[in-house]
Amino acid sequence: MSLLRNWLRAGVAAMVVMASVLLAAPAQAAPPAGSNIQISAEHVITVTSANHAQVMEQSRTKLVILDFGATWCPPCRQLKPVLEKLAAEYNGRILVGMVDVDASRDLSSQYRIRYLPTLVPVRNTAELPGSRMIGFKGEAALRTWIDAQLAKG
């Protein structure tokens, strides 16, 4: 009975942490009308098991950021347009790979994704160690994080 009680406490604690992360994420607005920022599908790709190897090959020449998310995840929906906008701004220096965790469970398992959204930077077909970004903390924090990943080479 004690073990069950400990599991329940751990589950409740995990729910509290996730709720605080979700509630703390600021909402991001779309670019204003007339803005010169254009979202380019050229720098954003949907990643599946079928094209994962090809995307990894592109990581030999540029930083690939795998965005693990889901359509039902509010912070993921906030992150997506901002990440697409930044991919266009970086103009070929990064490639954003959108991974739907519900459609690509094998990739989610391979990368050991536990929280959404999770950004995984990949360079030369390998994840940059200790560099994941979990959650969405706003555009400024995301831009700073991307710059730090680019600086790693």
CATH architectural group: 3-Layer(aba) Sandwich
CATH class: Alpha Beta
Number of helices: 5
Provide the succession of SSEs.
HEHEHEHEEEH
- Terminal CA distance reads 52 Å
CATH topology group: Glutaredoxin
Number of strands: 6
Radius of gyration: 17 Å
Name the CATH superfamily classification: Glutaredoxin
Strand content: 15-25%
Number of domains: 1
Structural class by secondary-structure content: alpha/beta
Largest sheet: 6 strands, mixed
Q: Are there runs of 5+ residues with pLDDT below 50, and where? A: 16-40
pLDDT averaged residue by residue: 82
Shape: globular
Can you put this structure into words, describing what you see?
By secondary structure, this protein is of the alpha/beta class. The protein has a single domain (39-151), classed as 3-Layer(aba) Sandwich (Glutaredoxin). It is built from 5 helices and 6 strands; from the N terminus they run αβαβαβαβββα. The protein has helices at 2-24, 52-58, 74-89, 105-110, 139-151; strands at residues 44-46, 63-69, 94-100, 118-123, 126-127, 133-134. Strands 1, 2, 3, 4, 5 and 6 form a 6-stranded mixed sheet that branches. The protein is globular and about 50 Å long. It starts with a helix and ends with a helix. Residues 16-40 have low confidence and may be disordered. Residues 1-29 form the signal peptide. Residues 19-151 form the Thioredoxin domain. InterPro entries: Thioredoxin-like_sf, Thioredoxin_domain. One of its GO terms (biological process) is cell redox homeostasis. GO terms for molecular function: protein-disulfide reductase activity.
